Amino acid sequence: MLDDSPKSRQTILNYPMPIERKLAAIMFTDIAGYTALSAKDSTKSSELLKTQRETLKPIVEKHGGSWMKEIGDGLLLTFDSATSAVECSIAIQVATKDIEDLNLRIGIHEGEVIKQDGDVIGDDVNVASRIEPFSAVGGVAISQKIQQAISSNQEFETKYIGKPKLKGVA
Asked: Rounded CA gap, 81 and 16, in Å?
């Protein structure tokens, strides 16, 4: 028999949610030169963030991505597939190439994430964040896992740039 008293219902409702783990392609973006722009013209830098949001959100949605969060001038996005993430990153770079000061670096990695309170965490999220700085402005840096996942797709051309040391990541 189920105890339906208010105290019993409260206990059930306060039970911690199970941890949701999933495989995802994780994308980080960063606006190159944003700190300098912000120091020089805070109004312009604030407008640039608005422009970034208005420009990128529809592209991310079109490619099935999840807009996890904005981190200063950077973004954390997730995708259900490496192909979708790479296609989205290319579309983002094409869409932003003529927008003044919206010069993006993008890094993508694939791995297991823990979805928690509208956010994603985990070692693979950290790896993705460490890959982004190796991207050229206007380019996309991908991990070996992403490269392997897209290698059979002739649409993509990749170039090996080496195996950099990633701070705090094995």
From this structure: 29
* Calpha distance 10→95 (Å, rounded): 49
Residues 104 and 93 sit within 8 Å (Cβ to Cβ) = yes
Please say whether the beta carbons of 112 and 21 come within 8 A: yes
Question: 22-31, pLDDT tens digit by residue?
Answer: 999 999 999 9
DSSP 122: S
Residue pair 132/141 in contact (Cβ under 8 Å)? The answer is: yes
CA-wise closest residue to 92 among 80, 110, 106: 106
| Gap between the Cα atoms of 89 and 107, Å rounded | 9
pTM, two decimals, is 0.85
Quickly count: other Cβ atoms within 10 Å of residue 5's Cβ.
9
Calpha distance 28→109 (Å, rounded)? 9
pLDDT digits (tens, 9 = 90+) for 25-82: 999 999 999 999 999 999 999 999 999 999 999 999 999 999 999 999 999 999 999 9
> Does residue 95 contact residue 142 with C-beta atoms inside 8 Å?
no
Distance CA 98, CA 55 (A): 12
